Amino acid sequence: MGEHTVSSFDEELEHIDRLIRDMGDLSGAMTRASTNALLESDNALAQRVISDDTIMDAKQRELDERAITLIAKRQPMAQDLRSVVGAIRMASDLERIGDLAKNIAKRVGAVGQGATPRSLAHSIDAMASLVLQQVNGVVEHYVRRNPEALVHLRDEDEKIDIQYTSVFRELLTYMMEDPRNITSCTHLLFCAKNLERIGDHVTNIAENAYYVMTGSQLPVQRPKLDETQVTAEAGS
Amino acid sequence: MGEHTVSSFDEELEHIDRLIRDMGDLSGAMTRASTNALLESDNALAQRVISDDTIMDAKQRELDERAITLIAKRQPMAQDLRSVVGAIRMASDLERIGDLAKNIAKRVGAVGQGATPRSLAHSIDAMASLVLQQVNGVVEHYVRRNPEALVHLRDEDEKIDIQYTSVFRELLTYMMEDPRNITSCTHLLFCAKNLERIGDHVTNIAENAYYVMTGSQLPVQRPKLDETQVTAEAGS
User: What is the DSSP letter of B226?
Assistant: First the structure.
């Protein structure tokens, strides 16, 4: 951590925002690359995602240190304090997105080559595209200070949940059809769950970004849909 | 949030520590109750865990607000700043443990009654006991300021990972034996994964607690074991 006493509060905050944008770009890239690696059995690409995660961790540490130093040295009040604390929280969610993408990448070997039926690969790919759109969108709306767009974006998370429940059911079907699919399908199940969880972190980021900009909470969210309602009766 | 200007820094920090201990107790109780609810198909208990999670969230918000106010008002340096920031991070991990326990509780209905073979229930129960020991231990060692115990505790996480990989394989076997087990077993798979992730959060807490107490990092950890190495070949 260097000395930042000569720079202004706003300059410091801009630097922190730049780190948020970098982390956002990286988390989007890792999400896309890990899914591509999974669907194309690309082990080299998977390795790149795994090593990208150390860059993500380093960025978060840098952001945390800068933010805490800024709070301690400048004692910001109200809006300014909200911005710095909000940045710490957003960075924490972005770092978790990196972790989840890394976890998808780590499963590339276990899923194995040619194991994913085409229609399933298509569903997972579509889900990843939705997720990527959300990751890129939330950072964009934060950087451009567009709270209205965040309300809309948060509501879009429902599409990911619907897509996820559908992938969950599709995976159950493949497992029931042929027991030889079970191992690779369980890994795909975790990958799909990770994509859904990336969507949840985007929701957290949207809520924090909205609070930073407006000082109030995003309107209460719909009850969350997920696969915990799919039972043996319903699934068969 | 009230006015704390008259209380000393140490009094404020003690209050924050009390919140950490409360959250630790609650996360242990939620972990145990959610697993019991799962293995005994106890829907009422599952509901209690789900509603406990709102208490957990409220505690974290309170801790966050107190900690940030403390940093802004008192501008603590070095050791003191480390303690406050460490508390924020530990609270974030404890809150995630609550989320994971809630997610286990939400699956109680989907797994269904009498669906879990006895030997599998035993393995999951044993895993939960290990996890619970870790959750309780890490908060205890933090409260008693015992960094040496944290080194040992962190290394114990490996036992959870070994147990988890074994549960993972056992679940694959049940799914392969009879396709009618697949839906409930996938939910159990997520539950076991959640227990394993609770162990990871304990590791994070141990690392933060150690840093708060000593100012240095825990010695580098062993490479993490997980089920991503279980392939279709190995699994069959």
Answer: -
Contact (CB<8Å) B186/A186: yes
A106: nearest Cα among A225, A194, A169, A2: A194
Please report, for residues A142, A177, B189, the alpha-carbon distance to residue B184 in angstroms, rounded to integers and kept in the order given.
40, 16, 9
**pLDDT of A114 above 90:** no
Structure tokens at B136: 């309780």
Q: Compute the mean pLDDT over every residue in chain A, rounded to the nearest whole number.
A: 91
- For the purposes of burial, counting CB atoms within 10 Å of the CB of B202, is it exposed (0-12), middle (13-18) or buried (19 or more)? buried
| Residues A124/A125/A128/A133 CA torsion (nearest 10 deg) | -140
Q: Does residue A21 fall inside a structural domain? A: yes
Pair A221, A152: CB distance under 8 Å? no
Q: Are A154 and A217 in contact (CB under 8 A)?
A: no
CA nearest B15: which of B93, B69, B75, B92? B69
Model pLDDT, residue A136: 97
The answer to whether residue B236 sits within a structural domain is no
Picking from B94-98, B108-112, B224-228, which range would have the lowest pLDDT averaged per residue?
B224-228
Residue A18 maps to a domain: yes
ipTM: 0.87
pLDDT of B185 > 90? The answer is yes
Question: What confidence category does residue A215 fall into, taking pLDDT thresholds of 50, 70 and 90?
Answer: confident
Domain tally, chain B:
1
CA distance B115 to chain A (A): 10
Compare CB distances from B115 to A184, A232, A235 and report the shortest one's residue: A232
The DSSP line for B170-213 is HHHHHHHH-GGGHHHHHHHHHHHHHHHHHHHHHHHHHHHHHHHH
* pLDDT tens, residue by residue, A139-160: 999 999 999 999 999 999 999 9
Query: Which residue range(s) make up the domain with A26?
Result: 9-235
Q: Which residues of chain A make contact with B94, given a CB cutoff of 8 A?
A: none
Suggest the residue from B9, B83, B221, B231 to mutate for an interface test with chain A (most A CBs closer than 10 A): B231
Q: Residue A201: which residues within 8 A CB-CB, separation 6 or more? A: A93, A94, A96, A97, A100
Q: For residue A68, what is the nearest residue in chain B, using CA coordinates?
A: B85
In a domain, B59, yes or no: yes
